[in-house]
Amino acid sequence: MKTIHMNLSRPSYKSLREVADIMLAGGVAIYPTDTVYGLGCDIFSKKAMERISRIKKRDPAKPFSIMCVNIEQISEFAQVSNWGFRLMNRTLPGAYTYILEARKSAAPKKMLGKRSTVGVRIPDNQICNKLVELVERPIITTSVNLSGGEPFSDPAMLPESFERYIDVAINVGPLVSEPSTVVDLTGDEPVVIRHGKGEELL
């Protein structure tokens, strides 16, 4: 695993371009978000998604969330209602994961697993947002942890079993791990299904 140390407030464009290129080549990367460190890959790399499931000892049928650059990109892969658009427009970028009905014609089957919905994020973090912009399509994103366990707050503390399967990690130092608030937007009104960071703005 290659480690790139970066300043959270002054990220290096050259280094981010390198990470984006690794993802586009089928690589798996670690990056900071506004909640926890994320583990991700190109949305269209089935092999990279399978590798992430192995790293985390995660059920391969479990769906992945995606990280997008804006709501317009979200709407390419998920169905966004008028009221859902207004809520997301008010709260994003932010520490929220919104559950939406997926557009199956656009969303890769491996990403959805056995579900028809997809979790979408636009974090309030310029590093991961720039990565999505450079990749030019959504990034699969999940927390850096063993399935069901606590997220790792510092890439320097990753066990060897993780490092072997990860191509590159952006290290900005330890983060205070706090999960995103998860909100289901598939019904007639928003339903909070996990309480976390940012809930006070809903």
Automatic annotation (TrEMBL):
Coiled coil region boundaries: none
Task: Please give the InterPro entries that the UniProt record associates with this protein.
Answer: DHBP_synth_RibB-like_a/b_dom (IPR017945), Sua5-like_dom (IPR006070), SUA5_domain (IPR052532)
Molecular function as annotated in GO: double-stranded RNA binding
Gene3D superfamilies given in the database record: DHBP synthase (3.90.870.10)
Q: Which Pfam families match?
A: Sua5_yciO_yrdC
Q: Where does the UniProt annotation place the signal sequence? A: none
Q: Where is the YrdC-like domain?
A: 13-198
Entry protein name: Hypothetical YciO protein, TsaC/YrdC paralog
